[in-house]
Design a protein that fits this description.
This protein is an alpha+beta fold and 1038 residues long. The chain has 4 domains: 4-31 and 327-553 and 853-1026, Multidrug efflux transporter AcrB transmembrane fold; 33-135, Multidrug efflux transporter AcrB pore domain (Alpha-Beta Plaits, 2-Layer Sandwich), CATH 3.30.70.1430; 183-213 and 235-266 and 708-796, Multidrug efflux transporter AcrB TolC docking domain, DN and DC subdomains (2-Layer Sandwich), CATH 3.30.2090; 560-599 and 608-707 and 800-852, Multidrug efflux transporter AcrB pore domain (Alpha-Beta Plaits), CATH 3.30.70. Helices cover 54% and strands 19% of the residues. A hairpin with a 3-residue loop joins strand 26 and strand 27. The longest helix is centred in the last third of the chain and has 55 residues, at 983-1037. The protein is elongated, with a radius of gyration of 37 Å. The two termini are 48 Å apart. The relative contact order is 0.12.
């Protein structure tokens, strides 16, 4: 029994079922979270350890290496990189997409504990870890300024209060405070004065440590009360430290103020932040992996008023960067695109049907299919994002197809005089198999996408699932709701009176149909020409695949630019501070810039960082208020920033899709690693300079910084031993005098602060000071360092980088205008091969470039998988090995049209446009299914010849084929021509679909019937030969 008849006979039940789907979808739509893209975060853990004053090499060997050895035992680690700078080591662990970040964090914590015995004993605190990817731009940037307070107090407020309140909010992964450091009591020693009193720096450090204590003291109790013992053993202000006794000389006590300048300041002097040129402390807010960025930002914004209310009136907390602004705008644009697609699709249906009542039927089918999809999205935990909404916008052209096929066939029967109710039964039964075949074969296209691995697979899982769901609902609706509506809404042919416009348009369509009849007859009579055109499309696919530019994802305009600036390797923090102000001044003059924030030097806290570098964050005005895109702003700023002396600035537009865990000054990365530092030191500069000369790439920069200055002390161990001086005593004396050593801790209810001791900064400006540094040996007095050592200035690395245990160098680059990532990676690989790097140098792309290469390698398998899935589904449905091949011959022309359109509109063949080609596979084969299904029915039921059957099928199916194709093309047109926020991500999809449909529509109307006849003749020829062989063998058998 025809299942559609149940719904035709029960209109109330059918109506209630449709209403239930719509109500469920409408409720789900209100509950769906909003995001820019589906969550594709790799589980990423960033581990940080600090040892103030330690050189990059010491940090790498004593901290990074022990940690990396333990981290190497953790399962699922796909990438492990580390960077060690002055006093700071940062290790980034990126895990497989299947790993849960909480489980990964537990493994990391266990590894840190296991490595603790191998770490330096004087490490101020255990390494800490955060569940964030530091290479990803923050979701929010806040600035804290004051009319009266200095940066130290502002940093304290930001670190001790504001960041703690924000970090407690759901979805927040880390709040990083930069631009200064915590308050501290600084002790600037006068080494000469100390020596005159015969007091060593170790004695001063010991005195400061023992005279500031915070240890338990016990308590007492009697029968009635209990009391604890407290004391004024904690001192927290510089004025309280100044009179402390640090030693004695000639019978007189020596106080700290006699040998040092004691004052209240900050822990590190090499960090400064500015917002729009004004001194500021900056808060960088990162989200947790898989946290919804819009929900998280909304929670922060709701908390800001209460945070501001608790601050002094002279302090100002301002929102400088909010990445969700463009996300909301982009999603809104896609929603408008979806509505426009629906309007265009329904408009196409009306143009062909020329009846408001008839147009209502497929319109209802579209509405039920799309709204019902929201319910499934909610159950699957999906979000309303650019890709899921793009899937719905594209699906408008698909979901209307099934309804059109059913309704058009019912209408055709009604026009022949068949009663409306009977036409609904008969018409639906005739095309039910066609609808099922079209829908299932279209869903089969997305099976390979559902199993696609890596970032593209995780991204497009929602896209494929959403589109497949809408198609499945459409199939059900077209076989239930649509025939029921046709039975009760369409008028019999005798009751229909057509106006002049209808008759005029019908004559026009008859002329088009007559022209197609003539040309189709010619094509059938000249099969070789048609088959040659099909072969030509296969050749064009190969040729165009080599010509079209290739990339991973389109470059987005998110309204945010970030990057860094870097001075010479021996540049001081003071010079970088001046450069930051100059850079911000240039940036603020650009009319497209709304805000700019940046900081130079270390990242604050008791750590360190590169003093010759800094970071920038730029917020652009809304897209409607600026005349150029983010890329245009970068092109406009680049020559102006290059004119600033003393620092090189590297900027890039922030992207919603980030791959990789290493932070760099450009978007794409080329990584070199070796088992020895010497090999890298020799070859990394060679490759770096070669890449700088390539015109196809720009902003080439490297993280190899081996030309920093160092003062190398060579001492005579034998002479030192005679003085009773050991290397440990020498290191201790140098560290206390030159290393910003933290000699005591001040405990408060909110935070911990340090007493920082070093020589007076005026004495730290020349290596010659080292020779007059005194080392105190126990019982043997003070000995100047120059008595048993020499000092010379040499070069030293400012940073030491590792990748998977081994020394590494990362060369980052951006693409020159009109150059694709595929072209750049090919040229770089060829350059590296020409240079002949030795076997112990491993060169590979990292981050986005590596993901691109992986995606490029998997594309042929994905397309092959889609074709195989369609072939299997169609083979099962038709119980034939030949007919699926006939249907699949429509596909080459679609991919040719897509690639031609991409080339003409200067778009890349990336993951987005590849999905468009997948969709074309599903769209174009529908035309062939419509033809072949009717032809088979005419042959089997009506007994017509193959040629007459396929010819009649083409004539009868011409109108629905043309209608569904135009509907699909116009449904994708808003994506192709969109210019709103986020249109960069949508445009390649629309271009590929529209271009492929236009080109394939012209060819498949002729190639499909010709191929159908060609295979039928082959089948008949094969059957005759088999019969002839059977006839020749028959007498012999008798």
């Amino acid at each position: 029994m025809n299942i559609s008849s149940l719904f035709i006979r029960r209109p109330v039940a059918t109506t209630l079922m449709a209403m239930a789907i719509v109500i469920a979808g409408a409720i789900a739509f209100r509950q769906l979270p909003v995001a820019s893209l589906p969550q594709v975060d790799f589980a990423t853990i960033t581990v940080a350890a600090t040892l103030p004053g330690a050189s990059p090499e010491v940090m790498a060997s004593s901290i990074a290496t022990p940690l990396e050895r333990q981290f190497g035992h953790i399962a699922g680690v796909t990438q492990m990189t580390s960077s060690s700078t002055l006093g700071l080591t940062s290790v980034t662990l990126q895990f497989d997409l299947s790993r849960d970040v909480d489980g990964a964090a537990r493994d990391v914590e266990a590894a840190i504990n296991a490595a603790r015995t191998d770490l330096p004993a004087n490490l101020p605190s255990n390494p800490t870890y955060r569940k964030i990817n530091s290479a990803i731009a923050p979701m929010m940037v806040l600035s804290l300024t004051s009319d009266s307070a200095d940066r130290g107090r502002l940093y304290d407020l930001a670190s001790s209060v504001i960041s703690q309140k924000i970090a407690q909010l759901q979805g927040v992964g880390q709040v990083q405070v930069v631009g200064s450091s915590l308050p501290a009591v600084r002790v600037d020693l006068n080494p000469a004065q100390l020596n005159s009193y015969g007091i060593g720096v170790q004695n001063v450090a010991r005195a400061l440590s023992v005279q500031n204590s915070n240890r338990p003291k016990g308590g007492f109790s009697d029968d009635l009360t209990t009391s604890v013992i407290t004391a004024n053993d904690q001192i927290s202000r510089a004025q309280d430290y100044a009179p402390l006794v640090v030693g004695a000389s000639n019978g007189k006590v020596v106080r700290l103020r006699d040998v040092a300048h004691v004052y209240d300041s900050v822990q590190t002097l090499r960090s400064a932040g500015y917002v729009n040129g004004k001194p500021s402390v900056i808060l960088l807010v990162f989200r947790l992996p898989n946290a919804n960025v819009i929900d998280t930002v909304d929670r922060i914004k709701q908390a800001l008023p209460s945070i501001r209310a608790s601050m002094p009136a002279s302090d100002h907390l301002q929102l400088m960067l909010d990445t969700t602004t463009t996300i909301r705008s982009s999603v809104h644009e896609v929603e408008l695109t979806l509505v426009l697609s629906i309007v265009l699709v329904i408009g196409v249906v009306f143009v062909f049907l020329r009846s408001p009542g008839a147009t209502l039927i497929p319109g209802v089918a579209v509405a039920i299919s799309l709204i019902g999809t929201f319910a499934v999205m909610y159950l699957q935990g999906f979000t309303l994002d650019n890709l899921s909404l793009m899937a719905l916008a594209v699906s408008t052209g698909f979901v209307v197809d099934d309804a059109i096929v059913v309704m058009e066939n019912i209408t055709r029967l009604i026009e022949r005089g068949v009663p409306t109710m009977r036409a609904a039964f008969q018409g639906t039964q005739e095309v039910a198999f066609t609808v099922v075949a079209m829908s299932l074969s279209l869903i089969a296209v997305f099976v390979p996408i559902l199993f696609m691995g890596g970032v593209p697979g995780r991204l497009f899982h929602e896209f494929a699932y959403t589109l497949a769901t809408s198609v499945a609902i459409s199939m059900v609706v077209s076989l239930t709701v649509t025939p029921a509506m046709c039975a009760y809404l369409l008028k019999p042919a005798s009751d229909t009176q057509h106006g002049r416009l209808y008759r005029w348009s019908e004559r026009g369509f008859d002329h088009i149909l007559a022209a197609y009849r003539t040309t189709l007859g010619w094509a059938i009579q000249h099969p070789r020409t048609v088959i040659f055109s099909l072969v030509l499309t296969l050749v064009l696919n190969v040729v165009l695949a080599g010509i079209v530019q290739k990339g991973l994802f389109p470059q987005q305009d998110t309204g945010t630019i970030f990057g860094g600036f870097q001075g010479a390797q021996d540049a001081s923090f003071q010079s970088m501070n001046r450069s930051l102000l100059s850079i911000q001044s240039v940036i603020r003059q650009d009319p497209a810039v709304e805000n700019t924030a940046g900081f130079a030097g270390g990242q604050g806290g008791p750590g360190g960082g590169a003093s010759n570098a800094g970071f920038l964050f730029i917020t652009l005005k809304p897209r409607s208020e600026r005349d150029v895109s983010a890329a245009g702003v970068l092109d406009r700023l680049r020559p102006k920033l290059n004119a600033i002396s003393g620092a090189s600035t590297y900027l890039q537009a922030a992207q919603d899709i980030g791959v990789g865990g290493r932070q760099s000054n450009a978007q794409y990365q080329y990584q070199l690693s070796a088992d020895t530092v010497d090999a890298l030191s020799q070859w990394a500069p060679v490759l770096y300079h070669a890449m700088q000369k390539m015109p196809q790439i720009k902003d080439v920069t490297t993280d190899q910084q081996n030309n920093g200055l160092q003062a190398l002390i060579s001492y005579d161990r034998m002479t030192a031993a005679r003085f009773g001086i050991t290397p440990k005593l020498i290191d201790s004396a140098l560290y206390y005098e030159f290393g910003e050593s933290q000699v005591s801790t001040i405990y408060t209810s909110l935070n911990q602060y340090y007493v920082v001791m070093q020589a007076n900064p005026a004495l730290l400006q020349s290596p010659s000071t080292l020779q007059s540094t005194y080392v105190h040996a126990s019982g043997k007095g003070a000995v100047p360092l120059g008595a048993f050592s020499t000092t010379r200035v040499s070069t030293s690395p400012l940073s030491v980088n590792h990748s998977s245990f081994f020394p590494s160098v990362t060369i980052a680059f951006n693409l020159a205008p009109n150059v694709s990532l595929g072209e750049a990676t090919t040229l770089i690989t060829q350059m590296q091969q020409r240079l002949g790097t030795p076997a112990n140098i491993t060169a590979q792309f990292a981050g986005t470039a590596q993901a691109f290469q992986s995606s490029l390698a998997s594309e042929p398998y994905l397309i092959l998988g889609a074709l195989l899935a369609i072939y299997i589904v169609l083979g099962v449905l038709y119980e034939s090995l030949i007919h699926p091949v006939t249907i699949l011959t429509t596909l080459p022309s679609a991919s040719v049209g897509a690639m031609i359109a991409l080339i003409l509109f200067h778009s890349e063949l990336d993951v987005i446009s590849l999905i468009g080609i997948f969709l074309l596979i599903g769209i174009v084969k529908k035309n062939a299914i419509l033809m072949i299904d009717f032809a088979l029915q005419a042959e089997r039921v009506e007994g017509k010849s193959t040629e007459d059957a396929i010819f009649e099928a083409c004539m009868l199916r011409f109108r629905p084929i043309l209608m569904t194709t135009v509907a699909a093309a116009l449904g994708a047109l808003p994506l192709a021509i969109g210019h709103g926020t986020g249109s960069e991500l949508r445009r390649p999809l629309g271009i590929a679909i529209v271009g492929g449909l236009i080109f394939s529509q012209i060819l498949t109307l002729y190639t499909t019937p010709v191929i159908y006849l060609y295979f039928d003749r082959m089948r008949q020829r094969f059957n005759r030969r088999r019969q002839d062989r059977a006839g020749r063998n028959s007498p012999a058998q008798t």
